[in-house]
Amino acid sequence: MKRRRLLAAAAVSGISCSKNEIKPDANARGPMPKSTVAILKAASYEQELLSVLESGLAAAWPDAAQTLRGKNILLKPNLVEFDSNTCINTDPRLVLAAREMFLKLGAARVWIGEGPGHRRDTWDLADQAGYRKIVSDFDDNFVDLNLDDVRPVRAFGDSMDLYLPKTLLDVDLVVSVAKMKTHHWAGATLSMKNFFGIVPGAIYGWPKNLLHYQGIDRSIVELNRIVRHSFAIVDGIVAMQGNGPIQGTPVGAGVIVMGKDVAAVDSTCARLMKLDPLKIRYLQDAASLKLPGLGAIEETQIEQRGELISGLAKPFHVVDEFAHLRLA
Amino acid sequence: MGWVENRAEFLRKHQNADGGWGYFPGRESRVEPTCYALNALGPNSAQEGRGIEFLLSRQESSGGLTPSSSVPGATWVTQLAFPLLKRAQAPSKQLDKAADWILSCEGAEGTVMQRLLYAMGKSKVEQDPRLRGWPWRPENNSWVEPTAHGLVSLHWMNGHAPEAGIRYRRDIATRMLLDRRCEDAGWNYGNRKVLGEVLPSYPETTGIALLGLSGSGANLEASLKRARLHLDSAKGDYGRALLSLALRVHGESVDYAPTHEEVHPSKNIILAGLELLAGKAKKGSLLP
Question: What is the ipTM of this complex?
Answer without folding.
Answer: 0.96
